[in-house]
């Protein structure tokens, strides 16, 4: 785990994301959050867009994690609008994915939507995710990835400027390969595009029953 994890503070990006959520992600948020069961952790909750998609009768508890205080402020506002019995299930933590304050094998399900593109250390984040999931637990993922051929080269060319505007997002991460390299059994259920620069996938990554 990194000794010193950068703490993002993106006031303007949080305001934009909160006011103009990406509606094209809604079906994929429904897949990720709507399929969560038991004790759940969400990595990089951002401005709280996934809160609308959880099946709350199937969720025993939800730990929302997000390192950016500006993003988290919007998520808290959305949480405050939910019914009291739902709010009672949710705990909010201002922490990075690379350093999760939970015991080993704590969670049945993790929800990870367009997060691994922005973490400072993807390998450390995935190692922490694997650690806190129970054996057999699943991470429900929606992530964009580096494209092949010309698209990948174009992403690399645009990355320095794009990353600054997009609050540290990386166009060129090979996230699917990183998930497998972290020791998860990944089953990709859908490949799709979020736009010209964002080939993406949705799937379930399971922690093996035996490490």
Question: What does the model show?
Answer:
The structure is a single chain. Helices cover 33% and strands 25% of the residues. A hairpin with a 5-residue loop joins strand 6 (185-193) and strand 7 (199-206). The protein is α/β, with parallel strands linked by helices and 211 residues long. It has a seven-stranded mixed sheet with strand order 3-2-1-4-5-7-6, with helices on both faces.
Helices and strands, with pairings:
Blueprint (H helix, E strand, L loop, with lengths): L10 H9 L6 H9 L3 E6 L15 E7 L3 H12 L3 H4 L2 E4 L13 E7 L8 H11 E12 L4 H17 L9 H7 L3 E9 L5 E8 L5
Parallel strand pairs: 1-2, 1-4, 2-3, 4-5
Antiparallel strand pairs: 5-7, 6-7
Any descriptors?
single chain; 211 residues; alpha/beta; seven-stranded mixed sheet; 7 helices; 25% strand
Strand percent estimate: 25-35%
The value of Rg in angstroms is: 16 Å
Biggest sheet features: 7 strands, mixed
pLDDT averaged residue by residue: 89
Outline:
The chain is an alpha/beta fold and about 210 residues long. The chain has helices spanning about 10-20, 25-35, 70-80, 85, 120-130, 150-165, 175-180, and strands at about 40-45, 60-65, 90-95, 105-115, 135-145, 185-195, 200-205.
């Amino acid at each position: 785990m990194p000794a010193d994890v950068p703490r993002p503070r993106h006031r303007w990006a949080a305001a934009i994301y909160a006011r103009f959520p990406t509606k094209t992600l809604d079906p994929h948020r429904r897949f990720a959050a709507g399929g969560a069961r038991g004790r759940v952790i969400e990595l990089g909750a951002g401005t709280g867009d996934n809160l609308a998609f959880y099946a709350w009768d199937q969720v025993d508890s939800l730990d929302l994690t997000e390192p950016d205080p500006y993003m988290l402020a919007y998520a808290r506002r959305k949480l405050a609008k939910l019914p009291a019995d739902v709010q009672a299930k949710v705990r909010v933590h201002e922490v990075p994915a690379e350093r999760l304050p939970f015991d080993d094998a704590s969670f049945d399900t993790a929800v990870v939507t367009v997060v691994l593109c922005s973490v400072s250390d993807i390998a450390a984040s995935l190692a922490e995710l694997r650690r806190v999931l129970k054996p057999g637990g699943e991470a429900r993922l929606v992530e964009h990835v580096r494209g092949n051929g010309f698209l990948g080269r174009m992403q690399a060319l645009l990355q320095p400027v794009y990353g600054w505007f997009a609050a540290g997002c990386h166009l060129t991460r090979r996230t699917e390969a990183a998930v497998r390299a972290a020791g998860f059994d990944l089953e990709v259920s859908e490949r799709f595009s979020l736009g010209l620069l964002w080939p993406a996938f949705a799937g379930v990554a399971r922690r093996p029953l035996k490490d």
